[in-house]
Amino acid sequence: MTTLRTRRGLLATSVAAAVVLLAGACGANAGSSDSSSSSSSASSAGSAAGSSSAGGDTSGSGGSSGSNAPAARGEITIGLLATLTGTTASDGQGAQRGAELAIKELNAAGGVAGYTFKLRAEDTKNESNDVVTAGVQNLLSDDSVKAVVTGYASTTNFEINNFARAGMVYILGGGTAQTAEIVGKDPAKYPTIWSVTPSYAQYGTGPVDLADQWAAAGTWKPRNKSAYIVTSDNAYSKGISTDLKAYFGKKGWSVVGEQTVPFGAVSDWGTVLADIRSKNPDYVVNTDYQVSNEITFLQQFLQNPTKSLMFLQYGPNQPAWLDEAKASGNGVLYNNLAGVIASDKNPETVTLQKAYQAAYGTSAVDPQAVITYQAVKIYADALKKVGDADKKTEIGQAIGASTTKAAGGTIVFDQQTHLAKAGDDFVPLQSFQIQDAKPVLIAPEKYAGGSFVLPPWFQ
């Protein structure tokens, strides 16, 4: 989660290649797991003319039992890179669930172009280069793998080059700044690489613009337009905090304090919070995206809160954060470019929520599940058009030309960066506030289900 996860400065290609060769020589395969596909009873929501639907609809990609059905061609594998263990394991579980659900729906509909599917998951653990490289090598060494999806894999997206050189279809979500940097230099070299998430640039502007709107409307009155930024020592968090600092300054704010904590678990925020309390800013922003860190930060802040708005990057999007925070989360602000559009005004959202409820007992669809679910469905639609799973370049080109109405918005790809397009009519930046222990969508107005209220610690 410039952010749902700016993640990732580009590693030198030679280093990445060397690690791949080393991993291959060692035969690393301990992080993989196969997940067999089974049928799902998810219903179809239909799709608009001229576009496909990735909101639980199986009609656009599935096969048919009729006489015109393509001949059975066997089972192929979709690879998954996900943090199945470690501090961000909840993200990995969500990513795995999304891919599994999409595959179940496709198989229940009879498959695509004569193919059925199974999932092979590789655990990227702590997102370190060696672990990710081993996972990439394992997937590329498996001839049955025809495409790979991920919410995010490494902290730099270096694996894009590995998959591009191998001609593998790779559909990802996180690290959009890094994806744009890698692909944008020569898009023609990356016909099989596409991101279902738009540029994270809005993460560096959205929180500031909303605060200015509330101040102008008199909903909230800043004392001196001061902000304090806390970040974590990783590319995703630092990229967002850098953009926010610049934009605060551009909009006439003063950043009165900055702190960077080491990447990983943080249990004691005492030093950071002491400085925040001494500066008493109007706005506190923490871009450390890890769920446990943002929970402890909030809990320790509330022991002696300042009258500051609080924005937390990404963490509150996770069901695990909401489950732990409960009412103590009331007033917290956050946003997302990767989850479902949190409104029944988007029919694909409703359909996916129903399918997720049936499969996993909750309608709270994990943002990482949305990414991988959409990625698998988009791949399947392209496979249907091309008809041959081994024609990966043609499938990649079909992906790039596609328009998909999905639970996260309408996905149309920018041909220069290979990112999804951003905007209220494409993939919108959604801004939320926790109210009564539940997330309330407060922007954009097109989908909003509520409005901003002062946090309870202001009382």
UniProtKB/TrEMBL annotation:
The keyword Cell division does not apply. Belongs to the leucine-binding protein family. Residues 30-70 are annotated as: Disordered. It comes from Nakamurella endophytica. The keyword Transmembrane helix does not apply. Keywords: Amino-acid transport, Signal, Transport. InterPro entries: BCAA_transport, Leu-bd, Leu_Ile_Val-bd, Peripla_BP_I, TAT_signal. Residues 30-56 have a biased composition (Low complexity). One of its GO terms (biological process) is amino acid transport. Gene3D superfamilies: 3.40.50.2300. Residues 1-30 form the signal peptide. SUPFAM superfamilies: Periplasmic binding protein-like I. Residues 75-420 form the Leucine-binding protein domain. This is ABC transporter substrate-binding protein.
